[in-house]
Amino acid sequence: MKILIIEDEKALSESITTYLRSEEYICEVAADFNTALYKTETFDYDCIVLDITLPGGSGLDILKGLKENGKMDGVLIISAKNSIEDKVEGLKIGADDYLPKPFHLSELSARIAAIIRRRNFSGNNTIQFNDIILDTQAKLSTINGQQLELTKKEYELLLYFISNKRKVISKNAIAEHLWGDETDGNIDFIYTHIKNLRKKLNDAGNADYIKSVYGMGYKFTDS
Amino acid sequence: MKLLSKYYRVNILATIIVVLFSSICYYFTIHYILIEQLDNSLKVEEQEVLDFIKEHGSLPAPSSYNDQEVSFKPSISNAPVRKFRTTDSFNKDDHEPVATRELIFPVNVNGTTYDVFVRKSQEETEDLIQLILGITLLIVVLLLLIVFLINRFVLRRLWKPFKSTLSQLKHFDLTGKNRLQLEPTKINEFRELNEAVTIMAKHVSQEYGTLKRFTENASHEMQTPLAIINSKLDLLIQGDNINEQQMGQLQGIYDALERLSKMNQSLLLLTRIENNQFNETAFISLDNTIKEKLLYFDELIVNKKLIVNTAFTPLNINCNRQLLDILLSNLLNNAIRYNTVGGTISITVKEDELIISNSSLLPALDGQKVFQRFYRHANSTQEGNGLGLSIVKQICHDFGYAISYFFSGGHHEFHIKF
What we know:
heterodimer; A: alpha/beta; 42% helix; 24% strand; B: alpha+beta; five-stranded antiparallel sheet; rod-shaped
């Protein structure tokens, strides 16, 4: 999977590429408007991570160019402005998603994975982790062919874990993913959801995939 | 004191003094002129008497007609002098004294010196003076009355542009809801005032705009470094050789970072609301929106074992959906966050009012400060950023809702009148 990261802040684009490369994505970076325009016109990407404010122009113009050229690349806008106008404008032009800065890399990765899944025209809407299979269209999960009875939040949690498999995810990132902005200072209750999900996975399957990392986060791993 | 009354006072006082002074001058002048005239006619009479004596060598018969009287008396003085004087004499049938002007002059008839008295009543002269003074007074009174009426009606109209400017200044709103629209006026002073006011308002608005842009830009600029820190932390925790103590420190950084991000977002939101960037409104069912919100907060409520009592009357309000969402989220979030474990939340929707009340460990908050930015109660141990209620207040202000805070029976209550 090829990803283009259009972001002028070097430190941020470095973090993003490091994280995504470890998830076996192939990453390229464009740090200004002209490079970005050249790359988007010349190559095809599975997903483009697009910052709106760029030296030399607006990211929205790159998005417009993509759509005018009939390009099928998925586009995820990341913006420091976090304004409704930008979001509405971006989605109207044809971006797939909008993620305001600052964000967790696990969140970015999950969103990219979702975009690529949705853009996958082979009709394959399932993702697999060992014996666990998630059908992202039907929002169903099975383990060893056996259906798991998960609540909505537990399903989202599992999907988030598998999208960031073998990565340490902070509790803050999980809370923000599941409850958005409404979690101020109240993130300990995610423990209940983790516990329930872990129990359901253990009851139906075998391995304990959810590892607690020194109480600061979790890692979904089979090793 | 009104400028106008001050002006009246000075004006009327000066007018009265001037009129009094000029009346006195006027009186004496007229009096002098009329007496002079009287004296002249007495002199004519004197000449007639002298002519008679010269012609006949004897005194004429004393006469009295038309208020004029001529009489003779042998002179007692050795050196008689000619003189005019005013005396009071008594009329035959009248007991009132009558002012009389007389001329006394000596004549020598056949070696005997006589004093000749020519008298003329001053009554007519006095009457004339009185009449003239009366008319003068009447004119003065009329003049004062006219000045008063002019002041009352014309000045009031003249001051109208000033009053209008003043009232607009009172309602001037920096957030741009009430722009100044000063009435054009032909009066130089008011035009200057309006120009000065317009320039000042422009300056103030510009300064305010600069300040707002600064807040907005500062918040925007902060987002990127925050994003970098966040991403570096996300990478850092992937490391294999981090021990538990270091993880604890990283968690501290995460938590602080999250607070900083949320505070920054709240500041941005406040600026946006002030900038009226949420102007799309729709009629939204308040009770249904609250029900959705409660579902959303279900986990937090269950986690704290809170009891939620609701009493809903269907109510539609004209509001921006996003802002209403934020308003309700902030109020409910506070009601949950500052609650005790096993506490209660009561939500009431009446025909034009929303009341959210919750139990809490915190005592009464300062009603004056509760909506101020960064106000937090001294005993508060919860991690709030102190902007939630400022945002609520700003949203209410934008839509003309009245929000108030009460504390009764250990419960914090927020009332919003739509």
